[in-house]
Structure formats: C-alpha cells, structure tokens
Write a structure and sequence with these properties.
Largest sheet: 2 strands, antiparallel
Number of strands: 2
Strand content: under 5%
Structural class: mainly alpha
Keywords: Membrane, Transmembrane, Transmembrane helix
Oligomer: single chain
Pfam families: DUF4212 (PF13937)
Radius of gyration: 18 Å
Distance between the termini: 12 Å
Order of helices and strands: HHEEH
Shape: elongated
Helix content: over 70%
Protein name: DUF4212 domain-containing protein
Length: about 90
C-alpha cells in the first residue's frame, strides 16, 4: 500500500476508524442493548413463536455481526478505490 503523502495516509486511516466505530457501535447496540438492556420490552413481540429479546440474544446479534462484516468489506473496497490502494 503506497500513499502519496502522510496527509493521504492519515485521511485513509481516519475514514477507516470512523467506519469501524460506527459498525462496532451498531453491533454493541444490537448485541448488548437488544439482548440485555431492552430484552423485557422486546419480549412483548414474538417472531415465529419466540420472544424477540430472546431471539436477539441468541441469534440476532450474530446475524447482525455477519452483516457488518459484509458491509465493512464493501465499504473498505470503496475506500481503497477512492485512495488508489486497491488490488485491481
């Protein structure tokens, strides 16, 4: 990975960090918030016979995490192209 200057390298890293903070925050809200903090409120809703709070604690946060991996990969591909450091 070769950047033209230190400012370009710093801009790339700042955008990467911003993306990671946003995605980790989403995962935290879903896994900790929906699975622990808001479980009582979510358990009033049922999906497929299971309480929604239980579903988030057992499966929902895992699905969200997998989605976040794909979003991160796609966004990093765009960021790499923007800064001219992609593999293509």
């Amino acid at each position: 990975m070769a950047f033209e200057n230190k400012e370009q390298s710093q801009a790339y890293w700042n955008k990467n960090l911003r993306l990671m903070v946003i995605l980790i925050s989403i995962w935290f809200v879903v896994s900790f918030g929906c699975g622990i903090l808001f479980v009582d409120a979510l358990n009033t809703i049922q999906i497929g016979g299971y309480k929604l709070g239980f579903w988030f604690a057992q499966q929902g946060s895992i699905y969200v995490f997998l989605g976040i991996i794909f979003v991160y990969a796609r966004q990093m591909r765009k960021l790499d192209r923007e800064f001219g450091v992609d593999d293509e």
